[in-house]
Design goal:
By secondary structure, the protein is mainly α. The protein has helices spanning about 1-15, 25-55, 85-125; strands spanning about 65-70, 75-80. Helix content is about 70%, strand content about 10%. Strands 1-2 form a two-stranded antiparallel sheet.
């Protein structure tokens, strides 16, 4: 991605107002496609994470949560989370992960206390 961006910057600096024969727009289009592919992969990852935690995805009817993009392949237009959608879903995932950690911490504390009580009882009974 950095190589593509550096090439774009280099051509843009050398552009002197004459016909660039579409080089700048082609590079900008390639960079936009790459950016959208990265966002699509982020959406796929967050969707799999949400599915594993049983967290619902944002509703597709909410326009500010999703954007559509067509990569030009036979799959057609895909739905990609916007920054607001990513933020919303990540906060829901974090809440669910925290709830699971809290349950584990509760049982760990309970077991540690019971082990301590048993050790104390055994030491008192040995005397």
């Amino acid at each position: 991605m950095a190589k593509l961006e550096n090439e774009y910057v280099k051509i843009e600096k050398s552009y002197e107002g004459i016909d660039d024969q579409g080089h700048l727009s082609f590079l900008a289009s390639q960079q936009h496609d790459l950016d959208m592919w990265i966002e699509y992969r982020k959406t796929s990852y967050l969707k799999s994470k949400a599915d594993s935690l049983l967290v619902p995805m944002p509703d597709e009817s909410e326009a500010h949560m999703y954007t559509s993009y067509d990569f030009g392949d036979e799959s057609g237009s895909v739905r990609i989370l916007t920054l607001e959608g990513i933020h919303h879903l990540r906060s829901k995932i974090r809440e669910e992960q925290k709830a699971k950690r809290d349950v584990i911490a509760f049982y760990f504390t309970l077991c540690t206390g019971l082990i301590g009580a048993v050790i104390g009882l055994v030491s008192v009974l040995k005397k």
